[in-house]
Design a protein that fits this description.
- The chain has about 260 residues and is an alpha/beta fold.
- The chain has one domain: TIM Barrel (Alpha-Beta Barrel).
- It contains twelve helices and nine strands.
- A nine-stranded parallel sheet has the order 5-4-3-2-1-9-8-7-6.
- Strand 1, helix 2 and strand 2 form a beta-alpha-beta unit.
- The two termini are about 25 Å apart.
- About 5% of the residues have low confidence.
- Its EC number is 4.2.1.20.
- InterPro entries: Aldolase_TIM (IPR013785), RibuloseP-bd_barrel (IPR011060), Trp_synthase_alpha_AS (IPR018204), Trp_synthase_suA (IPR002028).
- Pathway: Amino-acid biosynthesis; L-tryptophan biosynthesis; L-tryptophan from chorismate: step 5/5.
- It is an enzyme of class 4 (lyase).
Length: about 260
Amino acid sequence: MTSIDDLFERTRAENRAALVGYLPAGFPTKETSIAAIRAMIDGGVDLVEVGLPYSDPVMDGPTIQAAAEIALAAGSRTADVFDVVAASAATGTPTVVMTYWNLVERYGVDRFADELAAAGGAGMITPDLIPDEGAEWDAASRAHGLDRVYLVAPSSTDARLAMTAEAASGFIYATAVMGVTGQRQQTSSLAPALVARLREVTDKPVGVGLGVSNGAQAREIAAYADAVIVGSAIVRCLLDAPDEASGIAAVRELAADLRDGVERA
């Protein structure tokens, strides 16, 4: 049993979905990203995704791209990501890294896994790594006790869903839309069908992400998913704030609204 397994065992006993919040490390500075993550947790986030800023985030929308550019301009590096993970994990909240795979390869797969585990990280989300190309990560993650969170999409075949579910641990990340990350006015109509298809091949927890921006949308997704994943809306709180304190307060307020949504589903 990992810390993520424990979390989903608890949320299922409480008859609610888990709330997952994302923020890039080092945005807008390392210290502020740590403070914002603590605010997310104070507001009710159950699991934290720490993003590793990247100069070519092809799967991310303009909000997360802007945050990554700010973090990189401020000098954020991989070592800083592990510092942010450690600060988040020190609160007792399961914390994972979300990163493009080539950054891990360049750093060294086993080295990355070792340092992530040493920081208290629970696992990693790899949006552009498919299980059939993930043998090195599978071995390293198992050696260091880390969960492997893979993505599936509405376009995934039934065979692909089954294979991905078998390889994944912790939870499976179901992308609710075909496209890049970002806030949307409505939740995806494709998501319930995708989750239902996953339920046919696995009993592992399923988290739904891409597009959630408020408690009402979180409530919709929590009615059929094991986790509601929110990223761009949290990042936007900091991007739009006139100052750091206001941004952190906005993050806490949004997290509380989202948590209310998953509680009331």
